């Protein structure tokens, strides 16, 4: 008996796949294409952890199955390689980030190869390659030309001790991640991308794609579209309007005070009339230290100051109400001012409780206040709205407001334009030039890419400019428009740029003339199935959908949406049920698992460890169990005897397993597919012998999960060619159950056909199936039955 030796088997097949380019895909319009995509990783210095292979294996299973189904599968991989860790390492060690990045990429690639993924490695891309980022720059220029890229003063996170601008992920609890200093907000003129111009389409077009509902929900929530009205309240005794945005104009009779954001211009404008202006200035300063996120947290303690000297008039009942300043109202949303309805809004309620403001309910409900559910009750205390449901009242209130010129219906979005500048080195240079005469001018397309220059220090400058600002050779250039001396933009693009369109480049990665040829885009896009982490279902997905829609609008891509389908996997946790991290000492290195158990065991375990879309806890016992299972599969070959048909005893189980595994793989239910294969294995072992046909089907079904082992067994059994060149087994509908039989159907005493039906089927089912049987049907069509004799499990006899 030969021993299962995964290390030898796996190396052998990996070498063969690589040499023979087994998984290379080329445009072939005679074949249906299938483009599965997994998120390309940031090649960190730590190498792969066991979380990475979970999604990669999952779509590898689907990819391998689809190849056996006869589809032309293009499964690519690449590197999202710009980013902070390589840059910070460069700053500390004075090594060019490109060198570190290359080293890390080589390590990642080796690790991936050792797991046996069926990637088409000829399509590998790297976002830091000038041949790649040339096109990121090209897209930026197209956006600029369409008015979608513009400069604006926005706030950056500024560390006053490191003297650098920080990315959001470097700010932890309001402090600099590196030195712990309190982060400040500094205004800078930065490039912005106008994603808000696409807000409606980014929601509406979700109807056309097949995303998990939790993913659609995260897109919709982030965009945050709401329908309501802008309503004008006038300031008492002044010719001035204070406009609020409200989604509940129906609650206007319940307004007991107003609130403006600390940044609201009305404060400055009336400072001479405001008696407690000093107190307000002090409050403004306190608020400036908080992020919008902290300010809008629901259960934070409410603070505020009442404006002494200004008040407002409710336009519907002409009552005078006070105006407060509070940081729970943000200047960046709506109009920066609100009408407060404490009876029906959570935050207004807390505020009113704390500052003892009146609370007037405008819906009758037995529930405790605040009643925020719009379905609850009918309107009260609301004059002409009384008795209406909230939906009716909202409609009527908007009509009233519009008719009386008190305001207008309004749709608002939470989505903001995308800050597209970073003051860092390791990113794509933004291809713009500033000329004193011509303003901002894009670099000529023929001069792309604008390459990152070699520099000595990667540290941002003390004024917060990118280190590129110190390189005169880089900065000083001529205006592409008028030819006079001009200066290059020294900001670089953010981490998200390269990943916003990478899936397009895979279609034609070596093209020097365009992003990808029209032919390649027409054939391969859209992506058929994209799987990635839940942490990327908001921003990355939104940004790439935005870029794709823009490219669609300018005629570069053939479809409105980049991804037909999007699914998400759960994270892998350490033994202790905690997120894997170095400091906790619970990190599992896939290299160790491969060395000790083999790549097929790693793959099988990753797919077997639990429901794919939920989090799962790593367990060494589980790994050992999978290894044991594969050993048994290996030993199955000793039971093989001749025979081109399935063993009678196994026939039903095999057909059931084909059906189950086929369905489960397509529905990301890998754990139950593997469980079914394990149980079929037990049946085979109990029987003590199996036919070649049984064996062939078994290893084919397991092949997508354990490709090395099953190829080896294929060869050992003496089957022709390679397993990956054959086809996926089909099941026989009639053999899915032990109690189905082929029931003869007689018409007027002669057998005219057979139907496959359960032994216990009813007369109606039998008749129904019989009439669908072509031959039988030709004898009975249009005729009336004189007699129907049905003996379940034996015969159906029709007399016409
Ligand atoms: C009165 C009201 C009564 C409100 C009620 C809600 C419930 P969404 O749905 O998220 O768009 N709001 C408006 N601008 C704001 C700002 N700049 N900062 C903080 N809150 C603001 O939320 C819209 C609601 O949030 C608006 O409707 C307003 O409060 C508040 F029973 O007006 B509402
Ligand atoms: Zn010029």
From TrEMBL:
It is found in: Cytoplasm. Pfam families: Anticodon_1, tRNA-synt_1, tRNA-synt_1_2. It is an enzyme of class 6 (ligase). It comes from the Bacteria. It catalyses: tRNA(Leu) + L-leucine + ATP = L-leucyl-tRNA(Leu) + AMP + diphosphate. GO terms for molecular function: leucine-tRNA ligase activity. ATP binds at residue 582. A motif ('KMSKS' region) lies at residues 579-583. InterPro entries: aa-tRNA-synth_I_CS, aa-tRNA-synth_Ia, Leu-tRNA-ligase, Leu_tRNA-synth_edit, M/V/L/I-tRNA-synth_anticd-bd, Rossmann-like_a/b/a_fold, tRNAsynth_Ia_anticodon-bd, Val/Leu/Ile-tRNA-synth_edit. Residues 12-220, 415-605 form the Aminoacyl-tRNA synthetase class Ia domain. Keywords: Aminoacyl-tRNA synthetase, ATP-binding, Cytoplasm, Ligase, Nucleotide-binding, Protein biosynthesis. Its EC number is 6.1.1.4. Residues 221-401 form the Leucyl-tRNA synthetase editing domain. Residues 650-764 form the Methionyl/Valyl/Leucyl/Isoleucyl-tRNA synthetase anticodon-binding domain. Belongs to the class-I aminoacyl-tRNA synthetase family. PANTHER family: LEUCINE--TRNA LIGASE, MITOCHONDRIAL (PTHR43740:SF2), LEUCYL-TRNA SYNTHETASE (PTHR43740). This is Leucine--tRNA ligase. It comes from Anaerococcus kampingae.
């Amino acid at each position: 008996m030969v021993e299962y030796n995964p290390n030898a088997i796996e190396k052998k097949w990996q070498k063969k796949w690589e040499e023979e380019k087994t998984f290379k895909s080329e445009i072939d319009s005679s074949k249906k294409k299938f483009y599965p995509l997994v998120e390309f990783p940031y090649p960190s210095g730590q190498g792969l952890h066991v979380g990475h292979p979970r999604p990669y294996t999952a779509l590898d299973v689907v990819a391998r199955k689809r190849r056996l189904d006869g589809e032309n599968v293009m499964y690519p991989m690449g590197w999202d390689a710009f980013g902070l860790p390589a840059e910070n390492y460069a700053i500390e060690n004075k090594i060019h980030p490109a060198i570190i990045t290359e080293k890390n990429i080589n390590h990642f690639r080796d690790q991936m190869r050792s797991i046996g993924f069926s990637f088409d490695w000829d399509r590998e891309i790297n976002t830091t390659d000038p041949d790649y980022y040339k096109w990121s720059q090209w897209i930026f220029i197209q956006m600029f030309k369409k008015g979608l890229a513009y400069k604006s003063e926005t706030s950056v996170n500024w560390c006053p001790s490191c003297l650098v601008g920080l990315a959001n992920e470097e700010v932890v609890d309001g402090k600099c991640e590196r030195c712990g200093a309190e982060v400040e907000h500094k205004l800078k003129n930065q490039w912005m991308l106008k994603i808000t111009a696409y807000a409606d389409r980014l929601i509406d077009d979700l109807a056309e794609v097949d995303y998990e509902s939790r993913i659609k929900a995260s897109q919709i929530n982030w965009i945050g579209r709401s329908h309501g009205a802008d309503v004008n309240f006038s300031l008492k005794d002044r010719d001035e309007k204070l406009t609020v945005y409200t989604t509940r104009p129906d609650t206007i009779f319940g307004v007991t005070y107003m609130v403006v954001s600390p940044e609201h211009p009305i404060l400055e404008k009336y400072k001479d009339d405001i008696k407690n202006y000093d107190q307000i200035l002090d409050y403004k300063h306190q608020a400036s230290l908080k992020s919008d996120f902290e300010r809008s947290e629901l259960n934070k303690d409410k603070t505020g100051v009442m404006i002494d000297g200004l008040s407002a008039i409710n336009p519907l009942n002409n009552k005078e109400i006070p105006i407060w300043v509070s940081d729970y109202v943000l200047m960046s949303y709506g109009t920066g001012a609100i009408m407060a309805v404490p009876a029906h809004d959570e935050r207004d309620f807390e505020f009113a409780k704390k500052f003892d403001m009146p609370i007037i309910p405008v819906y009758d409900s037995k529930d405790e206040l605040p009643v925020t559910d719009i379905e609850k009750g009918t309107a009260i205390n609301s004059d002409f709205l009384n008795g209406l449901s909230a939906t009716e009242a909202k409609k009527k209130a908007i009509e009233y407001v519009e008719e009386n010129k008190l305001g207008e219906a309004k749709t608002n979005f939470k989505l903001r334009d995308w800050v597209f500048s970073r003051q860092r080195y390791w990113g794509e240079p933004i291809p713009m030039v500033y000329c004193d005469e011509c303003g901002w001018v894009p670099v000529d397309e023929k001069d792309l890419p604008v390459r990152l220059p070699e520099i000595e220090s990667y540290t941002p400058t003390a004024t917060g400019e990118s280190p590129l600002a110190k390189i005169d050779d880089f900065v000083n250039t001529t205006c592409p428009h008028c030819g006079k001396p001009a200066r290059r933009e020294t900001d670089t693009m953010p981490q998200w740029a390269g990943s916003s369109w990478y899936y397009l480049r895979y279609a034609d990665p070596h093209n020097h003339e365009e992003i990808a040829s029209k032919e390649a885009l027409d054939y391969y896009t859209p992506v058929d199935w994209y799987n990635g982490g839940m942490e990327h279902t908001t921003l990355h997905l939104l940004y790439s959908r935005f870029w794709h829609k823009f490219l669609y609008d300018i005629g570069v891509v053939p479809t409105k949406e980049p991804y037909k389908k999007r699914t998400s996997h759960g994270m892998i946790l350490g033994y202790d049920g905690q997120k894997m991290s170095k400091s906790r000492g619970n990190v599992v290195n896939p290299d160790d698992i491969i060395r000790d158990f083999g790549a097929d065991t790693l793959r099988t375990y990753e797919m077997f460890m639990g429901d794919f879309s939920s989090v799962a806890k790593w367990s060494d016992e589980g790994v050992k169990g999978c290894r044991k299972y594969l050993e048994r599969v290996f030993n199955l070959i000793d039971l093989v005897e001749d025979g081109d048909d399935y063993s009678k005893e196994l026939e039903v189980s095999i057909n059931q397993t084909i059906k189950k595994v086929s369905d489960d793989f397509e529905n990301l239910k890998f754990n139950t597919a593997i469980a079914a294969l394990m149980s079929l294995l037990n049946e085979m072992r109990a029987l003590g012998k199996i036919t070649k046909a049984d064996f062939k089907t078994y290893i084919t079904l397991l092949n997508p999960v354990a490709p090395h082992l099953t190829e080896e067994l294929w060869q050992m059994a003496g089957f022709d060619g390679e397993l990956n060149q054959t086809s996926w087994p089909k099941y026989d509908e009639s053999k899915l159950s032990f109690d189905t039989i082929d029931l003869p159907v007689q018409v007027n005493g002669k057998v005219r056909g057979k139907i496959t039906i359960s032994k216990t089927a009813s007369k109606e089912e039998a008749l129904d199936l019989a009439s669908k049987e072509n031959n039988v049907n030709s004898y009975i069509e249009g005729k009336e039955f004189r007699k129907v004799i049905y003996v379940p499990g034996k015969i159906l006899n029709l007399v016409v």
